[in-house]
Amino acid sequence: MEPILKLSNVSYSYHTPDGETKALADISFTLMPGEFTAVVGPSGCGKSTLLSLIAGLMQPEAGNMSLGGIPLTENSSKIGYMLQHDHLFEWRTVYRNVILGAEIRGKVTPQIRARAEQLLEQYGLERFARSRPSELSGGMRQRAALIRTLLLDPELLLLDEPFSALDYQTRLTVSDDIGQIIRRSGKTALLVTHDLSEAVSLSDRVIVLSKRPASIVRIVPVRFSLEKDTPLNRRNAPEFKTYFNEIWKELNHDE
């Protein structure tokens, strides 16, 4: 099986009148189809910069990136990006928020409308399709944002700390909910998070980055022997603490 995403020796620096700041140095990894991978690292190390490069919002100074064997510069439309905040517009109904991306791309076909209705029903929001975002809970808003991202059937999902704006209890339930939705959809996902518990509970692998300029310190495979492998169940499994401590030590190796 060929990787869906491949990064080879990717580097990036920010340039200002005061000089150059190296953000990423020689980043190389692959993602396989259907894999859920998390990226963790010290604050300010360049995790979100990495996602911006993959999303095509910036171009690397060195290295190569490809999606499905095609350079990302020619293939970025097949990537869905879910940000820290849901960015639902209050003047649009939940349904019209969900189809916004399709509107922007000029792809609101009868098939897209039918798929939007189907996803809203599938993920428990059909009763709120004509409601305003303010009528939804934080978790429901994140589900609506995810449906908007999934609607155009992206090959790769980029998740930039999508649960960080939620309170702790809501964050646990929403990450479990969204994590299971992504698993069932069979999508390949790359999650940036500063929460090690979140990384371990959601992912198949955890990529650990160093301080800026970020390089890959280690990639930790995550496996649980659970009859029902869900993010919440993982947090109560005996392997959870082992993985957490292992990644914690990598991040604090120089302390």
Automatic annotation (TrEMBL):
Question: Which top-level group of life is the source organism from?
Answer: Bacteria
Answer yes or no on keyword Metal-binding. no
Keywords, alphabetical: ATP-binding, Nucleotide-binding, Transport
User: Which SUPFAM superfamilies does the record cross-reference, listed alphabetically?
Assistant: P-loop containing nucleoside triphosphate hydrolases
Signal peptide positions are: none
Q: Which CDD domains does the entry link to?
A: ABC_NrtD_SsuB_transporters
Q: Which InterPro entries match?
A: AAA+_ATPase, ABC_transporter-like_ATP-bd, ABC_transporter-like_CS, ABC_transporter_ATP-bind, P-loop_NTPase
Keyword Transport belongs to the record: yes
Q: Name one GO molecular function term.
A: ATP hydrolysis activity
Q: What Pfam families does this protein map onto?
A: ABC_tran (PF00005)
ABC transporter domain location, by residue? 5-236
What PANTHER family would the database entry show? ABC TRANSPORTER ATP-BINDING PROTEIN, TAURINE IMPORT ATP-BINDING PROTEIN-RELATED
Question: What is the name of the protein in this document?
Answer: ABC transporter ATP-binding protein
Native organism is Candidatus Mediterraneibacter tabaqchaliae
At the highest ranks, the source species' classification is:
Bacteria, Bacillati, Bacillota, Clostridia, Lachnospirales
